[in-house]
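Researcher: Here's the sequence for the chain we discussed earlier.
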Amino acid sequence: MAEAAAKILVVEDEAQLAKFVQLELGYEGYEVTVANDGLSGLMAARDCEPDLILLDWMMPGLTGVEVCRRLRATGATMPVILLTAKDGIEDRVAGLDAGADDYVVKPFSIEELLARVRAHLRRNSSEGPEAFLFVDLSLNRQTREVKRGDRAIELTAKEFDLLDYLISHPKQVLTRDRILEEVWGYDFMGDSNIIEVYIRYLRLKLEAEGESRLVQTVRGVGYVMRS
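Model: Thanks. This is the structure I predict for it:
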């Protein structure tokens, strides 16, 4: 049984699906609020301050991606899981770049959805250091600031999460499977190409002014943060 105190907001325009998810989450002990369009979802997120949001991508008016982008722009940090029929890698990247933490493709099994909810709530409640420094690269979890020396670096939400995981495990070789599990929360349908995409994004930003490479590839295995 999950912690009864955890509050979940479901933003879904299919009334039958929203009711089904609400009932299943309720059986697990969560306090559930439902909104049936993007604008109502934004207002509910402000009013009920949920611990996690399940957010449909395709909705009339504001799409789920736009809702997520607006939430992140206000500084909201709760986990957001997108629910969508879109499953192309470019769609996944678009959703993650908007600030989503996870991605569930419809139709989904309720057991899988519940497992992801538990994982994100557990991860969000874990405590650890607020700031990291590796060579000349600094990362602050509280302010979400990243710097290379004195140069500020703007990262998307998922780029930040990936760098956070790498810099918090310096000099450790991290496999692709482990990165997928810890940063994305699941195996991404067995497709690890998403990691290569984000490693490339990170390197472009971290090395924009000719700085040395800190995110190294261990061929056939994964990646490691080392100078």
